[in-house]
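User: Structure tokens for both sequences below?

Assistant:
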Amino acid sequence: MNGKKAIFCWSGGKDSSFALYKILQTSEYEVVALFTIINENFKRVSMHGVKEELIELQATHIGIPLIKMYVKTGSNDEYEKNMEAFLLTQKEKGVDYVVFGDIFLEDLRAYRDKNLEKVKMKGIYPLWKIDTKELAHEFIDLGFKTILCCTNDSYLSDKEVGCVFDLNLLNNLPANVDPCGENGEFHTFCFDGPIFKEPINIEVGEKLYRPLEIKTDSDHPCSTENKTQGFWFCELSNI
């Protein structure tokens, strides 16, 4: 491939999967690697709670190398320091672009772009400003399969966590829940679809509740003003 070299900010969820699908449909960019931020203490994706080995399995089934960036404290200072060092390493390898699955959160995009400007890189947003209901239906119609691995209990409950994101679930979401969960209402793990060489066999295990440690926007780049009480997680395993 001769496209512009890019790395992909990979969470393992449906928006990442759909954005990757969109970017791979063009010849403008060459995605040389997926990169995921992992909590080093728990060996899991922050917020999603998905185990590190499942992210590795996704990359194998997609066929794109995976690079992991570890954080311990989850503080904003740690995140920015580690991210800048990571991006500079990629810049030295000829990578000038980072692809994200964000859809409409202006403050988050501004934060990402500000960090990228420090190392003279640019962000690419394949899903930006597309109607989220339209995105959700197209995602399902294309044959993607994803499971809710985390729900914000200000919007959803333990009944939804562990469920497959399909038309039935989409049509029964509460009116205050974005169809793509863009406001943090839920997070997902994608296990099948057109970007995968073969599906990942997933088993849903124990459901766990974790109270929220309230943060402000200055504490963490992805924090929100929402005063939720906590999150429901389900343990996912490969079978």
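Moving on to the next sequence.
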Amino acid sequence: MKHVANARRATVQAEVRQNVEAGSQVFTDALPSYNGLNQDYVHEAIDHAKEYVRGNVHTNGLESFWALLKRGIRGTYISVEPFHLFRYLDEQAFRFNERENDDAGRFLKGIVGVIGKRLQYASLTGQQAVGGLTT
């Protein structure tokens, strides 16, 4: 999951090509920005004005993820600063990917993931540290 500057064709397709192995199946909605992916992928699109599922082709998993993300931003976090958006996205992706694990398993995986990593307050708040003080 990654926040991108816009949903234009060049931006979206560059991200797909950078992160998805050529030849993979890619199922999307009917956003025109995805047109042309069939050159490198097995691309099928669902036009939600006509249908939501066609055999194995659907976007239901992604729609579920977006619903959970929006609920988290509006209900749990309330105020999300753009500077930290990638952190919220990472957390929600982790929660979604580990949804079948229990609380203890998610906690252990999270703790193991932070060993040896350090996040200073100045970096967290977007301020620069000067001589031990934040500005």
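User: Anything stand out in the second?

Assistant: The radius of gyration is 19 Å.
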